[in-house]
Amino acid sequence: MKIKKILNNGAVLTENENNEEIIVLGKGLAYGKKINDEIDPRKIYKIFTPFSGKQKKLLLETIHETDPIFFQISQKIVDRLKNEENIDLADSVYITLTDHLATSVERAKKGMYLSNKFLWELKNYYPKEYSYGLWALKLLDRQFDLKFPDDEAGFIAVHIISGELGNDIGDFQKSVNFIKNITKIVKYYFNIDIDYQSLTYNRFAVHLKFFWKGMMYDRKHQEFGDLSQEILKVIKNSDIESYKCALKIRDYIDEKYNYELSNEDIMYLAIHINKIISDYKGKKK
Question: Residue 93's closest CA among 108, 104, 81?
Fold first, then answer.
């Protein structure tokens, strides 16, 4: 690949083998280079291709206005998610997260910090993403000699979640409300206090997170395979109430989202609910 335009020391405009215009990022990628020079593939850490006109405009603006160090930090966050969790984030997260990190550091240097109104939901509904947000804070603190509050970890988590969903940040709030409302149905059906920090609830929240994504964007049912053993376990425990609660959730989703749950969807909900109730009863003994 040859350089068509140098955007900054770490970003260039070029073309791929299909003659599509792409933007390539890499530490020191364009240092000492000029137009038509070959790009060193060993320095590349991100390629944007192909992209919409709107995304290209936002990306170019971000590149021109932002220190490349923030792209590198974003890359570290995304790489860790890919390597440890096998999570691929949408390309848009590079733009939004990089811009957010740069803006946050700029504010922090002036002693200005934002409060995150979704911090509780993030800690409890998206603990994995929040934990990566905390890890990212350490990168920022070390790099810029700052001390961010935990609220900032929540903001970073929101960008990660939006990257997972493949949509804008507004979808994060919708997914949070979905998980919150389903959890309320379980909580009030059984009149219990749910332990949001438990592994059992975390698994339930993760199930709801991916169910939400499938419901909103795939609109098709996922095949989970043979459920006979799990179903048998629920039946043997005579836990018909978990099944009834799952039916209430089915009715809510049908009415609110015009989406019909399959029998497997219902049974998986019942299994998760059964485990939450079993945990609750075990702790009450």
Answer: 81
Q: Would strands 44-48 and 21-26 be described as parallel, antiparallel, or unpaired?
A: antiparallel
From the list 185, 188, 180, 175, the residue with the least C-alpha distance to 247 is 185
Residue 171 above 80 pLDDT?
A: no
Strand partners, 26: 44
Q: Which domains does the chain have, with CATH numbers?
A: 5-51 (2.30.24.10), 68-168 (1.10.1790.10), 182-284 (1.10.1790.10)
Burial class of 111 by CB neighbour count within 10 A (0 to 12, 13 to 18, 19+): exposed
pLDDT band for position 231 (50/70/90)?
low
Neighbours of 89 (CB within 10 A): 21
Reported pTM: 0.72
Model confidence pLDDT, tens digit, residues 179-199: 999 999 999 999 999 888 888
